[in-house]
Amino acid sequence: MLKGSRKSQSELLSVLPHQHFSESNGVLDLTFSISVGQSLSVKLIVDSKPGCGGIAWPAGQVMPPLIVLFTYKTANPLGNKCIVELGSGTGLVGLVAGKLDPTCKVYITDQAPLLDIMNKNVALNSLEENVEVSQLNWALIEEIRGEPIPSGVPSKADIILAADCVYFEPAFPLLVQTLSDLSDAKTVILFCYRKRRRADKRFFSLLKKRFSWCEVVDDPNRTIYNKEAITLLRLFKTDGRKGK
Ligand SMILES: C[S@@+](CC[C@H](N)C(=O)[O-])C[C@H]1O[C@@H](n2cnc3c(N)ncnc32)[C@H](O)[C@@H]1O
Q1: What is the mean pLDDT of the chain?
Q2: CB distance 54 to 46 below 8 Å
Q3: Whose CA is nearest to atom 2 of ligand 1?
Q4: Best mutation site among 13, 110, 134, 149 for ligand 1 pocket (most ligand atoms within 8 Å of CB)
Q5: Strands 105-110 and 131-135
Q6: In the chain, at which end, N or C, are there fewer CB atoms within 10 A of the end residue's CB?
Q7: 106-126 pLDDT, tens per residue?
Q8: Best of 111, 172, 175 to mutate for ligand 1, by most ligand atoms within 8 A of CB?
Q9: Residues with beta carbon inside 6 Å of ligand 1?
Q10: Does the pLDDT at position 3 exceed 70?
Q11: pLDDT at 76
């Protein structure tokens, strides 16, 4: 759990009223409605022992419908695309992308302690064909250390997904660097952010040196998760050419 959070897994999973979940023996069964009469289910092992990413956080929970929204607005948005999710935790967001389109290749990434739970979740959802688990520690690819992006993670992504990754101030520059390393001007970056503390401003000051962004405002669920201080942003790589 993040410092200061006393919510149980059940409370954390109640942001969107029309999403359903049940829990049995540590496995969550989450169902997202994706269009009238159509839904998508993901099974998720949750376990807080490997770290805070081992549970399903609210921002990660509201992100799957955004991916669905994106897939309806764009022609063949995920088809054959290379998708990298940063700070995947359980892998929920990337698993949803992998389920939505079996032709896309999804890399769900996080630090070493989370890899086991992510691998189990890939297997639980039979997504081994198009979802791969890789270790990607933002610190390791910081430019000034000269570390390459680890093998097992593509050097550039068509789509980057990140949910609830802004919470630990020392990691802010590393997250910005990682987003920058993996993207170019064409990369679609969907970034689900939960405002926690004033220090988050520092993240956005760093971000604006390389990216601009806009809030996704046409999501019908927006007013619900905005009340939980969650916003969905689309980032655009600018490398300082223009900032927000
Ligand atoms: C609050 S959790 C969110 C997990 C998931 N995206 C979700 O929404 O349920 C933040 C995630 O960022 C990961 N993380 C934090 N610092 C990291 C770093 N330096 N490199 C890679 N991942 C990191 C954590 O391990 C954790 O899984």
Answers
A1: 84
A2: yes
A3: 53
A4: 110
A5: parallel
A6: C
A7: 999 999 999 999 999 999 999
A8: 111
A9: 51-53, 56-57, 59-60, 87-89, 92, 110-111, 114, 136-139, 163-165, 167-168, 171, 174
A10: no
A11: 76
Rounded to the nearest whole angstrom, what is the distance from the C-alpha of residue 75 to the centroid of ligand 1? 30
Pick the CATH number of 9-237 from 3.40.1000.70, 3.40.50.150, 3.30.70.370, 3.60.21.10: 3.40.50.150
Listed residue (121, 63, 118, 66) closest to 93, CA to CA = 63
* Structure token digits, residue 4: 């200061």
Compute φ and ψ for 170, nearest 5 degrees. -60, -20
CA dihedral 64, 118, 1, 230 (to 10 degrees): -20
Residue at 160: amino acid letter: I
The 10s digit of each residue's pLDDT in 10-47 is: 444 556 656 677 777 778 888 887 776 778 899 999 88
Amino acid of residue 7: K
**pTM recorded for the entire structure:** 0.90
Pick out the residues of the known binding site for S-adenosyl-L-methionine. 57, 87-89, 110, 138, 163
pLDDT tens track for 165-204 = 999 998 999 999 899 999 999 999 999 999 988 889 999 9
Q: Where are the domains of the chain?
A: 9-237
Counting atoms of ligand 1 from 1, which one is nearest the CA of 171? 19
Q: Residue 208's CB: how many other CB atoms inside 10 A?
A: 16
